[in-house]
């Protein structure tokens, strides 16, 4: 029975990837041209860099040059539903962890069944499928691949989806958001920088190195430990705005939002 269900879900995902029902949302809220104002200010003290407390991390997207067949289609967010995958505007991000954390954000509650799916470009079956339940409240959510014993292989493009099921009997009507992720083995200079950085500096190092998923995970980990720290939330909101999700960034900084749960896991 489980295999039958997997085949149904997988066939639905394949159909969606072929372009039949995935909603394409316009992007372009990006902070291009404004990043100069966000450049992290630092002062050299011996061999250690000390960042000023009011500086913001700056995400420098890598030049990937993915061929067309490796690019992600679909959408990371839309005005149809208040759901956004927190990923770069080209919908592909890098990680140096083989068990990364994947994030999405709900600006308003939804009352539909939802699912999470992780695939790679050559697999016959999904690597991971998770029932997200019949409803989700507003907030930031995540899936940690470590919780499910799933590991990524280096230099492969993986795709992940959050699907809102509108009609269980007609899965082709699902509202689907798609993101891409690539695990790369870190080079020695990056590994050295991370090992020498303080925990508060790690998000900056990853962001400046184009490692999106780890930058977001690092700053979110700090927020989880200090949920009332407004400066940390500003740093995360700045990162999110830089990838074009201005509405999510603004919601992140609303005074009432500061009291919401930082993230919920499955």
Radius of gyration, whole Å: 18 Å
Give the total of domains. 1
- Order of SSEs: HHEEEEEEEEEEHHHHHE
What is the residue-mean pLDDT, rounded to a whole number? 78
User: Globular, elongated, flat, extended or rod-shaped: what is the shape?
Assistant: globular
Oligomer: single chain
State the separation between the terminal residues, measured CA to CA: 23 Å
- What order do the strands of the largest sheet run in, or round the barrel if closed? 4-10-9-6-7
Sheet bearing the most strands, described? 5 strands, mixed
Number of helices: 7
How much helix is in the residues?
25-40%
What is the structural class? Answer: alpha+beta
Which percent range describes the beta-strand content?
15-25%
How many beta-strand runs?
11
Low-confidence stretches: 5-50, 66-74, 255-263
Could you describe the 3D structure shown?
27% of the residues lie in helices and 23% in strands. The longest helix is centred in the N-terminal third of the chain and has 16 residues, at 2-17. The chain has 7 helices and 11 strands. The chain starts with a helix and ends with a strand. The protein has helices spanning 2-17, 35-38, 188-196, 202-208, 212-225, 230-242, 246-253; strands spanning 42-45, 48-51, 83-85, 92-95, 101-106, 113-120, 128-133, 139-144, 157-165, 175-183, 264-265. The chain has one domain (2-265). Strand 1 and strand 2 form a beta hairpin. The chain is globular, with a radius of gyration of 18 Å. It has a 5-stranded mixed sheet with strand order 4-10-9-6-7, with helices on one face. It is α+β, with helices and mostly antiparallel strands.
């Amino acid at each position: 029975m489980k295999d039958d269900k997997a085949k149904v879900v997988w066939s639905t995902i394949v159909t969606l990837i072929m372009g039949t029902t995935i909603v394409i949302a316009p992007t372009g809220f990006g902070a291009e041209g404004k990043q100069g104002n966000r450049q992290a200010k630092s002062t050299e003290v011996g061999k250690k860099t000390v960042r000023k407390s009011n500086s913001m991390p700056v995400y420098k997207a890598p030049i990937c040059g993915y061929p067309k067949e490796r690019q992600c289609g679909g959408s990371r967010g839309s005005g149809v539903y208040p759901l956004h995958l927190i990923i770069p505007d080209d919908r592909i991000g890098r990680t140096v962890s083989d068990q990364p954390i994947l994030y999405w954000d709900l600006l308003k509650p939804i009352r539909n069944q939802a699912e999470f799916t992780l695939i790679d470009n050559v697999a016959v079956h999904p690597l991971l499928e998770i029932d997200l339940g019949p409803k989700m409240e507003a907030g930031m959510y995540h899936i940690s691949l470590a919780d499910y014993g799933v590991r990524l292989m280096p230099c492969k493009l993986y795709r992940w989806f959050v699907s809102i099921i509108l009609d269980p009997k007609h899965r082709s009507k699902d509202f689907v958001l798609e993101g891409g992720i690539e695990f790369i083995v870190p080079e020695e200079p990056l590994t050295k920088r991370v090992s020498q950085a303080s925990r508060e500096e790690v998000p900056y190092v990853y962001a400046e190195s184009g490692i999106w998923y780890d930058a977001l995970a690092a700053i979110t980990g700090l927020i989880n430990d200090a949920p009332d720290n407004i400066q940390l939330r500003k740093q995360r909101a700045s990162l999110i705005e830089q990838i074009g999700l201005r509405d999510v960034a603004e919601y992140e900084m609303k005074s009432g939002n500061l009291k919401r749960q930082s993230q919920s896991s499955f």
